[in-house]
Amino acid sequence: MEHIKPENITECISCSNSNFNNNFIVTRKDKFAVTKKRKLKPAHYFECSNCGLFTLDDSSDYEKVYSDGGYYESENKNDTLSFLEKRFNYVINLKQGKSDNKERVKRFINFSNSKALEELNILDVGAGMGVFFYELLRDIKFKGVALEIDPNCNLHLKKKFKNFPISVSNKSIEKFSSINKFNFITINRVLEHIFDPITFLIELKKFMSKSSFIYVEVPDSDSYYKGGSNDEAFGYGHYHVYSPEALINIFNFAGFKVEEIKKCIEPSKKYTLFGFFKFK
User: Fold this and answer.
1) pLDDT tens-digit profile of 81-91?
2) What is the mean pLDDT of the chain?
3) CA 6, chain centre distance (Å)
4) CA angle 46-48-49, nearest 5°?
5) Residue 68's pLDDT is what?
6) For the chain, how far is it from start to end, CA to CA, in angstroms?
7) pLDDT exceeds 90 at position 30
8) How far apart, in whole angstroms, are the C-alpha atoms of residue 163 and residue 89?
9) Residue 90, class by beta-carbon neighbours within 10 Å (0-12 exposed, 13-18 middle, 19+ buried)?
10) Rounded to 5 degrees, what are φ and ψ at 52?
11) Is 133 helix (H, G, I), strand (E, B) or coil?
């Protein structure tokens, strides 16, 4: 393979290694390529030769992708809320064994039950359409905050949770404030969208006590080895695709230690890495 150096990456954020291999270009249609510049220049990834972290050779404007309402819009912009409602209902009504979200809820409940917590107060960062909270409310009692910067999803979330002990905010984590601490913060399929994940994780600590946990779920680096360079894990908007070692390193740098980390293949056939972390 021709040795090509990345334009924007000097070293791996997980292990500081400056040698990369398995560089590849995403050739399928890229749903994250929302700007003309990105459409004309396909996403290019480099794999760290030491820890296996895949990094997108790109700049740090992720909020422009997710806060302009573009990601969750239907083709007819005037029909976006109806589109979200239909998409939400489709996901919620998937049967056990067919739903990634139901598996996620099961993982979360099994872990939280093992900690025997009297009351759950959850901050869901990047709540999207709210399918995680909605499904979770079917099984357990909790209160929480759904944080989502997409304006269309924000309206959708407020409608869905108006009769539940869930508040909705469209603030980024950097601008969000709360007088309460959360015993769980969930970041489901979010961290891969963050250009600087270490700073992001440090921000989360403001809303945690020493006994709090973070649940994280990200595309697994197996996506490349089992799904290929055009797997759904890769494309503009996904700045990093994590190996277990890289994910643990990132959390360690931010002041957390791993409680549990596992791989799975979702019902949707996505390769997923998930884990629970707490303060060191």
Assistant:
1) 898 999 999 99
2) 91
3) 24
4) 120
5) 45
6) 41
7) no
8) 18
9) exposed
10) 85, 10
11) helix
Distance between CA atoms of residues 6 and 4, nearest Å: 7
d(CA 276, CA 120): 15
Q: Tell me, what's the pLDDT at 96? A: 93
Q: Which residues of 21-49 are buried (b: 16+ CB within 10 A; e: fewer)?
A: eebbebeeebebbbeeebeeeebbbbbbe
CA dihedral (273, 238, 189, 13) in degrees, to 10, reads: 60
Q: Is the dihedral angle over the CA atoms 60, 63, 68, 74 positive or is it negative?
A: positive
Residue of 206, 197, 154, 152 lying closest to 179 (CA atoms) = 206
pLDDT band at 110 (very low <50, low <70, confident <90, very high): very high
Amino acid letter, residue 271: Y
Q: Which tokens go with 190? A: 């979010």
Band of residue 2 on the pLDDT scale cut at 50, 70, 90: low
Q: Encode pLDDT of 193-231 as tens digits.
A: 999 999 999 999 999 999 999 999 999 999 999 999 999
Q: Are 131 and 100 in contact (CB under 8 A)?
A: no
Tracing tokens 């399928």 back to the chain, one arrives at 28
pTM of the predicted structure, to 2 decimals: 0.93
Q: At what angle do helices 80-92 and 131-139 cross, to 10 degrees?
A: 40
Instruction: Tell me the two tokens of residue 228.
Output: 């290929």
Distances (CA, A) of 146 to 75, 108, 172, 266: 26, 16, 11, 23
Question: In this structure, are residues 60 and 50 in contact, taking their beta carbons and an 8 Å threshold?
Answer: no
- How crowded is residue 96: how many other Cβ atoms within 10 Å of its Cβ? 9
What pLDDT shows up at residue 1? Answer: 47
pLDDT-derived band at 67, boundaries 50, 70, 90: very low
